[in-house]
Amino acid sequence: MSGVRRPTTTSRRRVGSVNTPRIPGAPSTRAWTHPKALLGTIRRFAVDPNSVLERQLGIAGVYVLSQVLFLLPGVTVLHAAPVAAAAVPWRTRPVPPRAAMLIPLADILAVGLLRAGTGGAPSVFTIMLVLPVISLGVEPGRLPMLLGGPVTVAALLLPAVYDPAAVSAAGWARLLFGTIILGLTCLSANELGRRLRSRVRAGQHLRREKEPLLAAARDDADSAAAAAELLAESEGQLAGVIVAVTEQSIIGTDRSGRIEIFNAGAERLLHVTAGDALGRPITGFHRADELTDRGEGPGDGFAVLVAGVTAGTPRVGEWTYVTGDGAELDVQVAVTTRRSAGGTDGVDGYLFVGTDVTADREQARLKEQFVNLISHELRTPLSSIVGYLELLSDDEDHPLTPDQAGYVATIDRNANRLLRLVSDLLFTAQVESGRFQLTEQPVDLHAVVQACVDSATPAAAAGGVTVRLAACDDPAIVPGDPGRLGQAVDNLLSNAIKFTPTGGRVAVTLSVVDDGDTAPVGLVSVTDTGIGIPADEMDRLFSRFFRASTADEHAIPGVGLGLSITKAIAVSHHGRLRVASTIDQGTTFTLELPLTPISDPQPPATDRRSVPAHR
Question: What is the domain extent for residue 110?
Answer without folding.
Answer: 28-202
